[in-house]
């Protein structure tokens, strides 16, 4: 029997804990988490705040009691102060200041990520806040319920920023979306797609301020009133910051080998360079099948898979990750975008000789009443023709198609293999000349 200490109990930590408790119940598991709750699906914050779902209760999928019922010892609202990796000792402190010391045979770090916080003057003003934790969602929801809050500024036009901008608009606010980049969502998508999403935002009443750098927040009586950028000043009763996240490596970063961005560097078994110390989720690196190299991709789905892998290895069953593609998607005002692998900028930055092929058509035959336009782009390596990435967008639900491209990247499929792929036709679903086939056939 081994004693396992797990630090952090959100998606990655929960997956590791459940794997250990369900498959290796002979071990002792001690869990630390500094929050009041666990298992919050942050991707649902905008849905709840924007009133697209009725309440937040179902955004939690487990709780402390569920782990205690499986015989785990759980310390909530308890912060780990230090780790002695030589003595295998964890020192923590409860919210009441009570010190807890636990020794371990194996340690899993699932410390997650923290919001990127630029040193902007006025960040400490009232109604300037991040959007990450459940408590952040509560604060934003309460602020949006205030009739005096009319002007909302969202800082950062990544996934969370775009989603929370939509949510604020759905609550009847005047919304401005700021980003230093010249378009939204540019980390995952090429401009052929992001420019369309820019228009979707604008057509639904959101004011885009792209290519604009926030420099200061001004306030009156301690409450924010103005956002100052390098191009102007704008009224703001509420500022929601969604600039991005960085790995939370506070514990052990001086002992554990880290990646270029500070994430704990792990192998395919989620092992760090220290004996019996594992790292999972947003605090750790991951292997990209598109890059064929170690990288950092903070997604909940990746976190869950890494937790499962670590759980089995810690429990005694050797298991290696098969790598990821970074598959993701977003739906804003009914416009859906999905991607996997690398976009053009990321592929070129990684040193690939990039080619791409694209196609645009209706999802279904023109005689079908319920229909929508579809855009697809497939990116591939000009040298070996291996698929590196794919992006799709439509008002139709085209999300399942991206999973095929995810598998194609994982299995190193070439663009030529897709040219005569067996894709069925039925007017209810697609066209006889499917846009995936047509894109592949038009590849050089």
Automatic annotation (TrEMBL):
UniProt xrefs under SUPFAM superfamilies: FAD/NAD(P)-binding domain, FAD/NAD-linked reductases, dimerisation (C-terminal) domain
TM stretches of this protein: none
Domain FAD/NAD(P)-binding: 3-307
MF annotations from Gene Ontology: oxidoreductase activity
EC number of this enzyme: 1.6.3.4
Keywords attached to this entry: FAD, Flavoprotein, NAD, Oxidation, Oxidoreductase, Redox-active center
Catalytic function, reaction form: 2 NADH + O2 + 2 H(+) = 2 NAD(+) + 2 H2O
Flavoprotein recorded as keyword: yes
Cofactor names: FAD
Domain annotation Pyridine nucleotide-disulphide oxidoreductase dimerisation: ranges: 334-430
Enzyme class: oxidoreductase
Family according to the record: Belongs to the class-III pyridine nucleotide-disulfide oxidoreductase family.
Protein name: NADH oxidase
Organism listed in the record: Vagococcus allomyrinae
């Amino acid at each position: 029997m081994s004693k396992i200490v797990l630090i952090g109990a959100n998606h990655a930590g929960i997956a590791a804990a459940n794997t250990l408790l369900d498959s290796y119940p002979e071990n002792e598991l001690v869990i630390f988490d500094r929050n009041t709750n666990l298992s919050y699906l942050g991707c649902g914050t905008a849905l709840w705040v924007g009133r697209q779902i009725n309440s937040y209760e179902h955004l939690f999928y487990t709780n402390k009691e569920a782990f205690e019922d499986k015989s785990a010892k759980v310390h909530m609202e308890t912060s780990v102060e230090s780790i002695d990796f030589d003595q295998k000792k964890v020192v923590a402190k409860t919210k009441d200041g009570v010190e807890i010391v636990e020794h371990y045979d194996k340690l899993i770090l699932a410390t997650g990520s923290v919001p990127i916080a630029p040193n902007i003057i006025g960040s400490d003003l009232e109604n300037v806040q991040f959007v990450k934790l459940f408590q952040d969602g509560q604060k934003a929801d309460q602020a949006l319920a205030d009739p005096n809050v009319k002007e909302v500024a969202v800082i950062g036009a990544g996934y969370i920023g775009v989603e929370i901008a939509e949510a604020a608009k759905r609550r009847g606010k005047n919304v401005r979306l700021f980003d230093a980049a010249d378009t939204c969502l540019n980390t995952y998508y090429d401009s052929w797609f992001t420019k369309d999403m820019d228009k979707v935002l604008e057509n639904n009443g959101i004011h885009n301020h792209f290519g604009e750098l926030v420099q200061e927040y001004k306030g009156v009586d301690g409450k924010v009133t103005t956002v100052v950028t390098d191009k102007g000043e704008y009224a703001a009763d509420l500022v929601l910051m969604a600039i991005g996240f960085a790995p939370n490596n506070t514990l052990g970063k001086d002992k554990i080998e880290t990646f270029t961005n500070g994430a704990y560097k792990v192998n395919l078994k989620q092992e760090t360079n220290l004996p019996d110390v594992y790292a999972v989720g947003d605090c750790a690196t991951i292997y990209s099948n598109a890059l064929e190299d170690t990288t950092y991709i903070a997604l909940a789905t990746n976190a869950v898979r890494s937790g499962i892998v670590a759980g089995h290895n810690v429990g005694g069953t050797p298991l290696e990750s098969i790598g990821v593609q970074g598959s993701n998607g977003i739906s804003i005002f009914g416009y859906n975008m999905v991607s996997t692998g690398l976009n053009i900028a990321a592929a070129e930055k990684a040193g690939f000789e990039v080619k791409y092929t694209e196609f645009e058509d209706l999802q279904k035959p023109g005689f079908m009443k319920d229909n929508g336009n579809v855009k697809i782009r497939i990116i591939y390596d000009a040298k070996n023709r291996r698929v590196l990435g794919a992006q799709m967008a439509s008002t139709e639900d085209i999300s399942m198609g991206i999973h095929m491209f995810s598998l194609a990247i994982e299995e190193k499929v070439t663009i030529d293999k897709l040219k005569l792929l067996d894709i069925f036709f039925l007017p209810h679903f697609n066209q006889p000349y499917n846009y995936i086939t047509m894109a592949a056939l038009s590849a050089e």
